[in-house]
Amino acid sequence: MKELTQMSNDLPVQIITNVIATTSREIQPCLPGKDALRQQIKRAKRVCDEEVERQPLNDFKLPDAYSITFSGVPFMKDITDGTERILLFTTNENLKWLQEAKFWIMDGTFKTVPTLFRQLYSSHAPAGGNVNSQIIPLVYALMSAKREELYQRLSQQLNELVDGNKLKLNPDFVLTDFEKGLINAVKLEFPTAQSKGCRFHLVEMEIEKSMRGEPAPKKRKEDEDTEVKIQNVIADRGNRSTTDFLRSIAHKLSL
């Protein structure tokens, strides 16, 4: 069970279910209780994590179980850039969807990342075709730093991967946060794509500035125009039906 725990990314309850299901009926009564099994799994995972975390970044090697798909296809690319590293995860099928996508959404998270790395960056785009289209993550990248050069290296590697599969990445626009290094890297590697900042991150930045006592940024004219339009729409509600009201919203906001 310890070996299964260290190789698997399943939840403890799933590992316990698998162990019980693959154990003969004669042996099952001899197994520890579920609480005891759960504690053993947690200890095994903790030991495995500690062994990984103690390694220097340059010595870290991702186990094969995490670098190939269930069908045995490699989907991890290890990229070294000076003293920094990127572990890039994607598949040829995902790259095809990325090629077809008119827009990408890119963002990073810091809460679920091994301490050897700084962030987990992901690229999302529509996949599934016209009928079943939905936005899903197509590329993951564990990055050891947040630098423009490393973002550029990541973008270059994506282009190299698609070139090797006779594909071409050419999104119409890329939605990111307002991190200047990333925006510059996107503009450099995908020059025809429009770079757009996520409004959520803009509002988040404004709130953080306000909490620090800094003056609020000046509103852009297009934001002020949109606010006026929305106020006019709300004031024009009257006694009209919901359908007529929604039609007026679509009309006025499109002017």
Overall description:
The protein has 255 residues and is of the alpha/beta class. The protein has three domains: 2-54, no CATH class; 64-206, Nucleotidyltransferase, domain 5 (2-Layer Sandwich), CATH 3.30.420; 220-253. The chain is 45% helix and 18% strand. It has ten helices and seven strands. The protein has helices at residues 2-7, 12-21, 34-53, 92-100, 129-132, 148-164, 180-189, 199-211, 221-235, 242-253, and strands at residues 76-81, 84-89, 103-109, 119-127, 134-143, 173-176, 194-197. A seven-stranded mixed beta sheet has the order 1-2-5-4-3-6-7. Helix 2 (12-21) packs across helix 3 and helix 6 runs parallel beside helix 7. The longest helix is centred in the first third of the chain and has 20 residues, at 34-53. The protein is extended. The protein starts with a helix and ends with a helix.
* Outline: extended
Strand percent estimate: 15-25%
Gyration radius from CA atoms, angstroms: 24 Å
| H/E element sequence | HHHEEHEEHEHEHEHHH
Chain-averaged pLDDT: 76
